[in-house]
Write a structure and sequence with these properties.
- Belongs to the actin-binding proteins ADF family.
- GO terms for molecular function: actin binding.
- Keywords: Actin-binding.
- InterPro entries: ADF-H, ADF-H/Gelsolin-like_dom_sf, ADF/Cofilin.
- This protein is α/β, with parallel strands linked by helices and 143 residues long.
- It has one domain: Severin, CATH 3.40.20.
- Helix content is 34%, strand content 31%.
- The chain contains 4 helices and 6 strands; from the N terminus they run E-H-E-E-H-E-E-H-E-H.
- It is globular and about 45 Å long.
- The protein starts with 5 loop residues before the first strand and ends with a helix.
């Protein structure tokens, strides 16, 4: 809220349907962007056939900041298959300074809208998005 950026009502509605895998929101992921430096809106959606790699491509595609919510399926250390919702804030070092400031300052607004997502990851370069070395170990701590 410090930046004056608000979250579009459709983001909250979509999140509720995404959690329950209802209708058009039976998805693997959703990415979000700040539109016109005023409001957080849905940017892209990835169907269930998409992978974590597809999510990473979409969230990093234009060298600008983005937020993302991904439903990660993985196997726990004791062999159970499970999934967790993970919020990722992509704020690359190469993004414009103004964009980085707006996204950093507005992150709490979207996190409060995505109520119930317990895993939050901040990524500033591609190594911090690496599934095996970075993301999976963090997610497994919550399994």
């Amino acid at each position: 809220m410090a930046t004056g950026v608000t979250v579009c009502d459709s983001v909250s509605d979509a999140f509720q349907k995404f959690k329950l895998k209802q209708g058009e929101f039976k998805l693997r992921y959703i990415t979000y962007k700040i539109q016109d430096k005023k409001v957080i809106v849905i940017d892209k959606k990835g169907g269930m056939e998409k992978t974590y790699e597809d999510f990473c491509e979409d969230i990093t595609s234009d060298n600008d900041c983005r937020y993302g919510l991904v439903d990660l399926e993985f196997e726990t250390d004791d062999g159970r298959t499970t999934s967790k919702l993970v919020f990722i804030s992509w704020n690359p070092d190469t993004a414009p300074i103004r964009s980085k400031m707006i996204y950093s300052g507005s992150k709490e607004s979207i996190k409060s809208t995505l109520n119930g997502v317990g895993i939050h990851i901040n990524a500033t370069d591609f190594s911090e998005l690496d599934y095996e070395t970075t993301v999976l170990p963090i997610v497994k701590r919550f399994a």
